[in-house]
Amino acid sequence: MRNFLQKAEEGMEKVGENSFEDEIMESDIELEGEVFEPDNDPPQKMGDPSVEVSDENRDKAQLYKKEGLDALSEGKLIEAVECLTDGILLNPTSAILYATRAGVFMKMKKPNAAIRDADAALQINPDSAKGYKSRGMAKAMLGKWEDAAHDLHLAAKLDFDEEICSELKKVEPNVHKIEEHRKKYERLRKEREVKKADMERQRKQAEEVSAASAVVKDGEVITVHSSNELETKLKAASSLSRLVILYFTATWCGPCRLMGPVYKSLAEAHRNVVFLKVDIDELGIVAHRWNVSSVPTFSCVINGKEIDKVVGADKASLERKIAQHGSSKK
Hints:
The chain has twelve helices and five strands. By secondary structure, the chain is of the alpha/beta class. The chain has a five-stranded mixed β-sheet with strand order 1-3-2-4-5, with helices on both faces.
């Protein structure tokens, strides 16, 4: 028992040393690819989607789109944005205009602006491959690798092209590293919780053992004076997996007086066994419940149930029963 308590105390000391209350510090992930600082410019002009677009404005918007693409091909990015913005204001229901302007913002290294336009394009047309592609590439620029991969895969399903394929080859290795990193630390946290629960279980068990040991008093004969007290002692012995010898005696019994010192010496010799004593005149109800018809009677009890019995002042038989039933309970 001392060994168990000592191990439990040592375990609790280790809990303090490991400091389960501290969070697990995650290491950095070595990711590939350039990440850009987010652009914090004021939001670009957006069209009013509630406006009813006339055929004339739709045609004018197409012209502005062409001018924007021409400017883009010449590397005139600001001019391209201005032309496309004019087109968007005339026809705010065109997903392709927003997606095209998003692509220009990408070239200007303005990922947040590109994401705003891509969101607008996808709100108008949830199947806009160019919208998903632009947003995916913009998120990759910001280092949002998992979101980027998600959008790029959707774009590839809708309208696959080599640029999407090339971008996914850059993004997916980082996504894989992030997933492996997450799994690793989820596993570590689960292991930590299991260890924490195990140490808590050991702590509670140590407390229960300590409390039970105080109740049964190793090496002593315990005189029981009530039914409740007997139940408490038997329950404590059960929690310790101890054999109990329940000795029924009486003050007027001559053989009982002879067995008294013997019983005391047996308790001192077998500290792993619980030795209880009940006076049948004081606790007749208890004696009746345990079917005691004469004294001295020694009931061998494990887990609250009688498994054997010695009737009479038979020291040798009592010693054999203790050796037989108590040896496995040390």
